[in-house]
Design a protein that fits this description.
This protein has about 130 residues and is of the alpha+beta class. It has a single domain, classed as RNA polymerase II/Efflux pump adaptor protein, barrel-sandwich hybrid domain (OB fold (Dihydrolipoamide Acetyltransferase, E2P)). It is about 15% helix and about 35% strand. The strands form two sheets. It has a six-stranded antiparallel beta sheet with strand order 1-2-3-9-8-5. Strands 4-6-7 form a three-stranded antiparallel beta sheet, with no helix packed on it.
């Protein structure tokens, strides 16, 4: 299971890359593996300010549909348009081309409460 050390993680299996006041968010390698083949991603929250833990979209796999949760509070500035026609990028490159949204942080200190790679590995039993 791939768990990059430069990222933060949530118990809901989202990853976060923070650069300055911006966060890039996606789902983890573990999450995409558990979901199976991802066929559709719906994100209609661009331009909205959402609180930590609020739903920013959904991911549909062959087996199930799952909500996507905001790991940090902020305004959704951008979504990965490529996923509209190539949702499978989340399966093949969860931490790269499979990113989902970019967020302008409302409270950067919230990132301190996220899991580091070691804590996330313990969570998933890796």
């Amino acid at each position: 299971m791939n768990v990059p050390t430069n990222l933060k993680y949530t118990k809901d299996h989202e990853w976060v890359l923070i650069k300055g006041n911006e966060a890039t968010v996606g789902i983890t390698d573990f999450a995409q593996h558990e979901l199976g083949d991802i066929v559709f991603i719906e994100i209609e929250t661009v331009g909205e300010e959402l609180g930590q833990g609020e739903v920013f979209g959904t991911v549909e796999a062959v087996k199930t549909v799952s909500d996507l949760f905001m790991p940090v509070s902020g305004t959704v500035k951008e979504k990965n348009e490529e996923l509209e026609t190539a949702a499978e990028l989340v399966n093949s490159d969860a931490y790269g081309k499979g990113w989902m949204i970019k967020v302008e942080l409302s409270d950067p200190s919230e990132a301190d409460g996220l899991l580091d790679a070691e804590a996330y590995k313990k969570l998933i039993g890796a």
